[in-house]
Amino acid sequence: MQQVHASAGSAALSWWQRLQQARAGWLVNPRVHQWASRSVLTRWLVRRRAHQLFDVMAGFVHTQVLLACLELDLLVRLQRSGAQGAAALAKTHDMPLEAMTALLDSAVQLGLLRRRGQRYTLGPLATPLLTHAGIRDMVQHNALLYADMQHPVALMRQPKTSAMHRFWLYTDGSDGRDAPSAAPHHWSAQGVAAYSGLMASSQSFLREQLLQVYPFAQHQHVMDVGGGQGAWVATLAQRVPGLQLTLVDLPPVAELAEQRLTSVGLKGRVQCHGLHFGHDNLPVGADLITLLRVAHDHPDEVVRRLMQGCWRALPAGGTLLLAEPMAEQPGGAARVDPYYHFYLLAMGQGRLRTASRIALLMSEAGFVDIESLPTSLPMHGGVVIGRKPLDKTETNVRKIG
What we know:
The strands form 2 sheets. An 8-stranded mixed β-sheet has the order 1-10-11-9-8-5-6-7, sandwiched between helices. The protein has a 3-stranded antiparallel β-sheet with strand order 2-4-3. By secondary structure, the chain is α/β, with parallel strands linked by helices. The protein has a domain at 39-130: Winged helix-like DNA-binding domain superfamily/Winged helix DNA-binding domain (Arc Repressor Mutant, subunit A). The two termini are 19 Å apart. It has helices spanning 15-27, 30-38, 43-71, 74-81, 86-92, 97-109, 126-131, 133-148, 152-157, 163-167, 179-182, 189-202, 204-213, 231-239, 251-263, 300-313, 337-347, 355-365, and strands at residues 2-3, 84-85, 113-116, 119-122, 221-225, 244-249, 270-274, 288-292, 319-324, 368-373, 382-387. Helix 2 crosses helix 3, helix 3 crosses helix 8 and helix 8 (133-148) crosses helix 12 (189-202). The longest helix is centred in the N-terminal third of the chain and has 29 residues, at 43-71. Helices cover 49% and strands 13% of the residues.
């Protein structure tokens, strides 16, 4: 476990960061750049920076190559039939040979395919795409995000006009109970199933990481707030048989969750409650509350109310566990921050927070002993836990700053 500083401040730049900034400024000088490009001692650095900048510029094309491979089912087809040539694939998909060859050769360079002579087969990055439905679902879902980002400045000025905002129904502040009169098509069964289904499939990596880093068997009753269709509580029911389980979500989603949980034999094992955590009190009785990818969908004022509601619902000594993508994660995971920043912007609300910012919000709600749990794949999410004090005199001894 790693101690989390409940502080919103930022540290001064280290000497290494200052040196890197100075080097970057030095290299943009035209004369220095020309000399560095020719020198055997520095041209590797110039070349690497040029490649990095080109990757940033070309990133959108890379994602569209990936999307095209999925839309054409190329990976599944090659998995079933083995290596195939470009001409056969072009004929199958009624596409000009030149266009199919461009797609296949691009996929080779991105690691999605391999070329063996005149035939193509699966590459190293095809395996996770074929194995994990959540990755495929997110790649296809991201078509909405990329369409919204065709004009990024316009999106920044008017984020709530986006297709992403319309897809995530709850981002307009409603809960589905007044849908028939206020917006008959907005909270349709198809819309609820679409967003809650995506949420369930895309959380699979995070669920597995949680089971690795936290001992859920030490608790008696877990309540998952914002639990969607119940994928997380179903996983807990399977892995930790003795747990009592409660799921809380908006009424239409909780109703769908109850149907799905019943279909997998968990009727009576999980209690489902339909409510809006921004307005309604959470049920009591759980000694652990989990928030999986919930807080980052909401602004600070909503998260504060949610954490206060969790604090009230928990008994003394109860635990709050929050797991979601976090900013400035170690191990290179911070490179995914731009994606989450603009994904949440396109949703029309929410914020990618650091673990320290989350710790501060927990501390403001009254939680103590706030800690961060390291995960094997921080790009999918970090974990912060806090405990409700045993008595009113207990303080957050781990809080610094």
